[in-house]
Amino acid sequence: MADNMTQLVRAEICASTECNGLCTIPLGYSSRCEQKYIQKRLVALETSGQTLYTDLFWIPSCCQCTIVNNN
């Protein structure tokens, strides 16, 4: 854009799908790291480059360690 307008969004992306070493997991269970997302409303530029509009974008927000039963 001519005026160099920017929008900053903080995103957290999981480095791995494993949660190893975060906690002790009982026998018969395993853990996995899952990416979670939030919606953010941002200003976007149409493909013509002439018109601004607002739209919702899914942004990676955090990682969640989930414990699951292996049975």
How does this model look, in words?
With 71 residues, the chain is mainly β. The chain has strands spanning 29-45, 52-69. The protein has a domain at 36-69. Strands 1-2 form a two-stranded antiparallel sheet. It is elongated. The model has no long low-confidence stretch (mean pLDDT 86).
Query: How many DSSP helices?
Result: 0
Spell out the helices and strands N to C: EE
Extract low-pLDDT stretches: none
Mean pLDDT: 86
Give me the side-by-side strand order of the main sheet. 1-2
Structural class: mainly beta
The gyration radius over C-alpha positions equals: 19 Å
In helices, the fraction of residues equals: under 10%
Keywords: Disulfide bond, Glycoprotein, Signal
InterPro entries: Cystine-knot_cytokine, Spaetzle, Spz/Toll_ligand-like
Domain Spaetzle: 3-67
GO molecular function, one term: Toll binding
